[in-house]
Here is the input.
Amino acid sequence: MTNENIQDNYSTFAEKYDTLFNDEMYYAWASYVVNNTQPGRILDLGGGAGRLAVLLSQQNYSVDVLDISTEMLSLAQKHAADSDVDVKLLQADMREWSDWEFCYPTIVSFADALNYLPNLVDFKATIRQVYDHLEAGGQFLFDVITPYQINVLYNNYYYNNDDDEENIFMWTSYPGETPDSVDHDLKFFVYDENIDGFRILREIHHEQTYTLSVFQHELELAGFEDITVSADFGNQTINDTTERWFFRAVKA
Here is the structure.
């Protein structure tokens, strides 16, 4: 998948994704970060529309947001201005941003950002960039959806939303071509007054995950240590039906 393919994932419907995403998740992610860090400089990798960045800024963090989508970063700029906080924006591919010379005590990545990387090679490249941009002893906090989420909960998943005439959409999920992957077929029905009817806008999103041992092994190979994994935003231990793994890994 090319750089352009990844950017296209969020280019068409950036504002709709931002509007429809569950705000409570961002508050939970913010609490997870606050519980595991001290206020300071932090990078939100794949930070999208900046919802988490705004919440952390309000908790006295100095937040930079890295994302490949200019549309998402435009929304992040708007949200920061609306909340009267200062957020620095960096438009870049999370797999390669070696020209960014600043290092951080903490880098975070949530909301399936790492699951959108097409394959393991891309994941390896990304966590190596993270390692290189952490201070010594710095930590990487991130989450990913699990094989249980993909293979069980997303297996032939279907959701139809027609309660809000401004946001009518259909969401269908089906197994991807590679193990532990899923493709989401998203269709938005947008009213067009020129035709007095609805236009259908469609995107296919691919998400990929791996077994827990693969994530742990790749983090170790990249040089991370003190790797811990939890569930429920760090509040529970993991089990066979955990839907999202939360990782904390420290730069050696």
User: Anything to note?
Assistant: The longest strand covers residues 134-145. DSSP finds eight helices and eleven strands in the chain.
